[in-house]
Design a protein that fits this description.
The chain is an alpha/beta fold.
């Protein structure tokens, strides 16, 4: 399941959203995937539990988090959700806040890795200090903007 198709199928894009804390930010993404039946509500609980026990492993670049848990934690089918925030949220003991989140639900570990690679490809930016360019997602005002960013990144167009 490719990123763009998944976002369309699951109606799972939420732009310039508001979240009071990181738990709420994560829930915005998982709620959309629960609504589309891609995941069970338990997937959210698993993510929160893992972050609380292992630390914010879901932060994979400055200001960018990729909430995910294991396939057995409640994934019905591989899916993605994208959330951008008006105001960034802080994770415990992290200096850099997060304002762009891509929830990844992989139904197998292979699909999980493929999903991770595709998202990384979309955000990859060798000219950026952090290695990723989040501004192109932050600038999106609607779903069409998001699809265009993905198409451009993956098709080199």
């Amino acid at each position: 399941m490719a990123l763009k198709e998944s976002l369309i199928e699951n109606n799972s894009i939420l732009l310039k959203a508001n979240a009071a804390n990181w738990q709420e930010a994560v829930k915005l993404g998982t709620d959309m995937l629960v609504a589309s039946n891609a995941i069970k509500p338990s997937y959210y609980d698993a993510i929160i539990h893992c972050v609380k026990t292992m630390g914010p492993y879901i932060i994979i670049a400055p200001n960018f988090a990729m909430p995910h848990a294991r396939p057995e934690d409640g994934v019905n089918r591989t899916a993605f959700a994208l959330v951008t925030l008006n105001q960034p949220v802080y994770f415990d003991d992290e200096e850099e806040p997060v304002d762009v989140l891509v929830t990844l639900a992989g139904s197998t570990s292979d699909q999980h890795m493929e999903g991770l690679m595709e998202v990384t490809q979309v955000l990859d930016d060798e000219t950026s200090e952090t290695g990723v360019n989040l501004d192109k997602l932050r600038a999106c005002k609607n779903k069409e903007d998001v699809y265009a960013v993905i198409d451009k990144a993956l098709n080199g167009g």
